[in-house]
């Protein structure tokens, strides 16, 4: 297929801007009541009201025509934060958590992330690929067309590289665009429990140089948290990664306010993740430094924590993006529709703000804003058809996915 015309759709898309959308522009969305989108070789060439698009097209230009029958058409979701490369499930841990054991207690006792590390070390590269593929394809069914995937269940050079190769294979063998993040600083491995600085040294002197030499991760992320990596250790790791050409992200103030958001603003990182406990002062510093807040409401839901203060962040002009955090522990979901619903219902974002958060601002946080995240001429024709009149259906029709068709570069993939 060379060119395709999608007509008779209610189209909604964030409006591109030279910077991530924040404050009053966080909800900057355009819509076409009876819209059409025309793409050629996977790239959007025209989008607008159907009569305008048709006027600019001659019939011999159109190889294929799809009547969307009045359904809603939005950009494919960009999920900018996942740990979807894993080999195990942790259902027993979930039962402990809902009975009251805190998430960080489980990690301290050698479970949690560390039990996933055990499973990933044991799995063959093919097994790890198959398990990752299953979850990535379910994300695609649910409308995710661009995804970030972190390593971080290896915690030694060899196993981290194994994870990164698996993620690269996902990039090659699925239709999704995949951003790859090295997260050796996800937990302190058991062998280094008494001497975490030694593990930090290993990451700085061995892992980061090896990974950067192979060029298989564009980002580096750190879990900056009480009992995991301190602000000082996180800074040292992220500065080393930056020296080796990686872009930075940080799990900041997920459980305790230890100053992760402040560090994000100081470095600065592209994004800071979670921010459930971040202070007002540090959010202001993030706004000033232009750091994107990647909010993960499904994790707050699963950890039964108060949601991040999305409204306050928008008031302070921190750009907000939304992600699943898909992982076997703190939050097991591949569903961006679920995240969308939580953002609207429980974080009180407007439908337009959540649409920007699940698409364009996520793309910004992955440095892919020129390619995906909105339905602009020149971008990839990555889009979804929803069973509903507007993106509000993503919150309205709860507990199911209203996504009934997924297109990547103009081709139906789910
Ligand atoms: O973002 N907080 C650290 N990492 C993940 C959880 C990973 C896991 O529990 O396996 C998170 O919540
Ligand atoms: Fe995470």
Notable traits:
single chain; 414 residues; Urease, subunit C, domain 1; TIM Barrel; 2 domains; eight-stranded mixed β-sheet; 16 strands; binds N-(iminomethyl)-L-glutamic acid; binds fe (iii) ion
Structural account:
The model has no long low-confidence stretch (mean pLDDT 98). The chain is 37% helix and 22% strand. It is α/β, with parallel strands linked by helices and 414 residues long. The protein has 16 helices and 16 strands. Helix 5 (125-141) packs across helix 6 (157-173) and helix 13 packs antiparallel against helix 14. The protein folds into two domains: 3-76 and 373-412, Urease, subunit C, domain 1; 78-365, Metal-dependent hydrolases (TIM Barrel, Alpha-Beta Barrel). It is globular. Bound molecules: N-(iminomethyl)-L-glutamic acid (NIG) and fe (iii) ion. N-(iminomethyl)-L-glutamic acid (NIG) binds next to helix 4. Fe (iii) ion binds at residues 81, 83, 251, 273, 325.
